[in-house]
Every structure is written in C-alpha cells, then in structure tokens.
C-alpha cells in the first residue's frame, strides 16, 4: 500500500533533483529521505531516480511524479470534505486577490466571515492577475477575486459587482489649459467625456502593463490623440494623489476612491476637498465586472461556499452606494 508521506517526500525530491536540498527543505536527514525513496522503489519494484550527477528521474519516476500530486490532492480533498460533513468547526480558506483591490474589498467581507466562522483559518495570497491565475490552477488558493473573465482554464466564476474606471479631472488643470472656460468645459464633459477635448491637458498615468493603463491607451488611440504624459507610476494610488494636487488628469477605479470606496459620500467628499471632477467614460471596457473564481474540478469546501455568500451579500450593496 502506498504511503502518503513517501509520496510527499518523493515529490520534493523530484522537484529539487538533489537529495541534499530536498532533505533540507523537508527538515529531515538525507538518509531518512533516501529510506523513504527506497521504500517507494521497493513498493513498485522499479528505480525512480537515475543516481547520476545531476540526479534525474527515470521514466517510471516521471510517471509517478505526474500522478503523485493528483493522489495527494485527492487525499486532501477527501479529508476536507469529511471534515465539512462532520461539523464545520475547523478548516481553512486561501484567498487570492491583488494588493490594491484587497485593501478595499476584504474589509467588507472578512470581519463578517470571521465573526460567523471563527474556526476557519484564513490565508491571503496577493499578486497580479497572472500570478493568482497560476495559483488557482495549481490548487495553491481556493478562490481568487479579479475582473471577469478570468484567464484560467476549468474555472467557474460568480459576478459580485461592477468596477468602473472614471476619468479624473482637477479644476487646477482646467484653469491652466482653458483659462476662463472651466465651467463650460466641465459642462461639456458631463454631457460626454470626450478625450479630444482634453488633448492639451497633462496626464498622470500608470505604467504600461496595468489594465487601467491599457484601457486608457485604447481610448487615446480611438480618439486619435497622443496624450501629454507628465509622469508614469506603478502605484495606482499615486496617480490619484498626484491628480489631487493638480498635476494632471488620470483614470481611476471608482471602487478605490476615498476612505469609503463603496459609497457616494466618499466620491463627493474627495471631489469637494481637492476640487476634482469625476466622469463616467463612454467606453465599454471601462466598465467591468468583479467576480470570484474557483476551480470547478476541485471539491468546493463549505468555507469557500460561505465566503462567496457573504461577498454576494455585502459587496453589491456597498458598491451601489446605497
């Protein structure tokens, strides 16, 4: 009968292809690791490693490595399902979300979740969309929060709320670029936020590669203008801070605005304090849907079910500004 511990140790050795490094990673002696590998080789009556330098997997070792992870995942899912059936008093949940989005979304979900399910151990994994997608695909996280559609195979998604990108226009810039015409320009932008009208204005933008910047570049191209970019940054909060000083126009997700990003009062307070104007854009990709994704091929624990339920209850209500 296959020993799960032997399989776990074999997988680490197969990843490292070095018994010394694998033993250190497992906090066991090299001799102990060799014994576990030898037990597996005796179980299957094959050699799993070519004892060469560097170490390599035999064909049988490659076949076992491909199946071992599936066997261990199935074991973990079985234990998890049985624990859920038992009493749901203990468990764990791993959540993947971007650094910035997590700051605004998780405070709406996690306190309520922890209050209802104090026995569930929460793990937060932060990263960009591609990193989180890889983590979800490999089973390192139970779910991820991101804009739909998610670029991951075999994933089910549940929409949570809208995430709109707004055009942010400081009064200071309008006074400088359109002396004596500020109110007229603001009225025109309120009717239709035409970027051609703002072609001579300075812009503070995120660096290329960010979704908000990609959408901004698409709108610039559609409007056939080359923006006057005075600064680029990788931090989305920095662009808003600089726009507040009047340094330039920018694009910013409505959800991230002010201390209470889910209420209209946050938007209004920011507008009044810094003399900023926010305009909804006439561009389809500036209006996205935030959702939760989970791997449909994996067992969904009750911990995951309950997290999704609470998110569905709290985020849309807050996001509507009501």
TrEMBL record:
One Pfam match: LysR_substrate
Database matches in CDD domains: PBP2_LTTR_substrate
An annotated Gene Ontology molecular function: DNA binding
Name of the protein in its database record: LysR family transcriptional regulator
InterPro entries for this protein: LysR_HTH_N (IPR000847), LysR_subst-bd (IPR005119), WH-like_DNA-bd_sf (IPR036388), WH_DNA-bd_sf (IPR036390)
Source organism superkingdom: Bacteria
Keyword check for Cytoplasm: no
KW DNA-binding (keyword) present: yes
SUPFAM superfamilies registered for this protein in UniProt: Periplasmic binding protein-like II (SSF53850), Winged helix' DNA-binding domain (SSF46785)
Span of the signal peptide: none
Protein keywords: DNA-binding, Transcription, Transcription regulation
Family assignment from sequence similarity: Belongs to the LysR transcriptional regulatory family.
Domain HTH lysR-type, first and last residues per copy: 7-58
